[in-house]
Amino acid sequence: MLRKITTVGMYGLAVLWLFPLLWAVWTSFRPRELATSWSFSTDFTLDNFAKVWDAAPFDQYYINTFLIVTGILVAQMITATLAAYAFAKLQFWGKDVLFVLFLVQLMVPADILIFPNYNVLRDLSLLDTKIGIMLPYFASAFGVFLLRQTFKTIPHELEEAARMEGCSWFQILWRVYVPLAKPTYIAFGLVSVSYHWNNFMWPLIITNSVENRPLTVGLAIFAQSFETGAQWAEVSAATVMVIFPLLLAFLLFQRQFINSFIHSGVK
Amino acid sequence: MGELRAKWKVNMYAWLLLLPSLIFLLLFTFYPVIQTFILSFHQADLGSPEPFFNGIDNYKQMVEDEVFWKVLTNNIWFAIGTVPTSVALALAMAMFANKALRGKSFIRTAYFYPTVVPMIAVANIWLFIYTPEYGALSHVMEWFGKGDMNWLGDQNNVMWAMIFMVIWKEAGYFMIFYLAGLQNISQELYESASMEGASSWTVFRRITFPLLMPTTMFVSIIAFTNSFKLVDHLVIMTKGGPDNASNLLLYYIYETAFSFWDQGMASALTIVMVVLLLLVAAFQFFGMDKKIHYN
């Protein structure tokens, strides 16, 4: 009996969780004057999307977001791989201290240091640039710890065997460790991409031109240019447009997404 | 001699490997915190063209500032409201999504998708949900014959509205970590428990929950940090209002720094935030560590 109630409750929760998305999608296809009404009708239109596309440079925002996300990901992969190998496999002077320094970044992430980091970027003359948006995220303690955990599970014998074959240190990393940690890379990549695709506050503060503004900031500016509820349909359309690429990617790679997390041994 | 050389070589390798990460860590975590610490003892606002040292004036002013206390209290309530609930819900979701017989992937998707939706888009959608008269919630309340409520415009309701939304946004993300944790529990434990005829509640209390303790600690730390980090929605939904009822520490820093341009005060506030997060992290790290059964 209790089990049945839980089951129904948990399916109910799933429906409740889906509701906001379905409602936004529904509204975005509704004619403007019907957007706020709950009466059912079969009137659907693409007008809202056309209007939104004309009203703001969303194409530029898409490109900006894409470049920012890719730049961060590539840099993070490189810095995290190197650091994770050192932490996982080498004994060296200052290891514990450095480990704690990395831990601190998990507790005090760059997102909280918006004001201090603004000053750093100003001193570097990088305000209102794409590289400025990316730079504070080039090192990821989360990525380092995730990869370190995976590298630790890779038996040392493999490395020794590779060394016998005459592999250089870099070849060992590239041929042994990186391929074996592929699920972790995928997991971390997906987290990083969705995180930075969605990041808002930091780019809001340091950008003020269309050339550098990501989708999130563009969406906020677009949504705030409306004062009344009359433009719900358009704001919904813009919102759906911004959500769509990432959501689609998630739906397509859902299995990999969730499995890669599970197998990467995130604990 | 050769051994010493080899040792030296490993040290050099290790530091070189760590260098790229370290540079960015120093430049965007440690250096700014130190600079901010120094600036927090200075008067640096629009009225002072050159920042000058004013001791602990900023901190004094902060302690006397009613808005600061309100914002801090709000943030603590926000953490209390979101962290335990979303973590508990995540655990329930993971256990169900792990066992559900029908529509396993549908269930996971439904729980998880809010994570990949930008907070700023979430804010737009939920703004419509909470709008009086036309919003989805108003329509639902109408069905139940309840009066309309102004969720975001009312000081007593706005925090609840925010807490609910953030739980919706985050629970599915934490579920993933629990799903991973569940996979790591050996099936044999469950088999021997069922041989002894343990009830499912006992199994949960004696096996599942204790073995998931490291996950719970990890997730709680993320959830807590997030409760200080998540402010994007305030820009769209309330701007911290009405009368600062939904304002949070980071948004207050943002206002102080970029709207009022009071850099000394923004620095002092940032230091408070950093100290707070480190304290809680240390407490969680050392306090909970002893109670955890590592497998």
What does this structure look like?
The complex is a heterodimer of chains A (267) and B (295). By secondary structure, chain A is mostly helical. Chain A has helices spanning 2-28, 47-55, 58-89, 95-107, 114-123, 130-134, 141-153, 156-164, 169-180, 182-198, 201-206, 215-224, 232-252, 254-263. The longest helix of chain A has 32 residues, at 58-89. With 295 residues, chain B is mainly alpha-helical. Chain B has one domain (66-291): MetI-like fold (Orthogonal Bundle). In chain B, 73% of the residues lie in helices and 1% in strands. Chain B contains 13 helices and two strands; from the N terminus they run αββαααααααααααα. Chain B has helices at 2-39, 57-64, 66-99, 104-112, 119-130, 136-143, 158-183, 187-195, 200-211, 213-229, 232-237, 249-258, 263-289, and strands spanning 42-43, 52-53. In chain B, helix 3 (66-99) runs parallel beside helix 7 (158-183) and helix 3 packs antiparallel against helix 10 (213-229). At the A-B interface, helix 1, helix 3, helix 4, helix 5 and helix 10 of A face helix 1, helix 3, helix 4, helix 5 and helix 7 of B.
Give the structure's gist in a few sentences.
Chain A is mostly helical. Chain A has helices spanning 2-28, 47-55, 58-89, 95-107, 114-123, 130-134, 141-153, 156-164, 169-180, 182-198, 201-206, 215-224, 232-252, 254-263. Chain B has one domain (66-291): MetI-like fold (Orthogonal Bundle), CATH 1.10.3720.
